[in-house]
Amino acid sequence: MTINWFKYAAPNSFYPWSGRIIPWCYAAAAVLGVIALYMGLVRAPADFQQGNSYRIIFIHVPAAWMSMIIYLGMAFWGAIGLAFNTRLSFYMMSALAPTGAIMTFIALWTGALWGKPTWGTWWVWDARLTSELLLLFLYMGFIALQSAIEEPRRKDRAGAVLALVGALNVPIIYFSVQWWNTLHQGASVSMTRSPSMAAIMLWGMLIMAGAFWLYCIGATLSRVRSVMLERERLSAWVQDLEHR
Amino acid sequence: MLLSIQALARRDLLLAFRQRADVLTTLLFFVLVCSLFPLGVGADPRLLQDIGPGVMWVAALLAAMLALNRLFAIDHADGSLEQILLAPQPLSVLVMAKIAAHWLSTGLPLVLIAPLLGLQYGLPAEALWVLTVSLLLGTPVLSLVGAIGASLTLGLRGGGALVSLLVLPLYVPVLIFGASAVEASASGLAYDAQLSLLGAFLLFALVFSPWATAAALKISLD
Question: Do A225 and A18 contact (CB within 8 A), yes or no?
Answer without folding.
Answer: yes
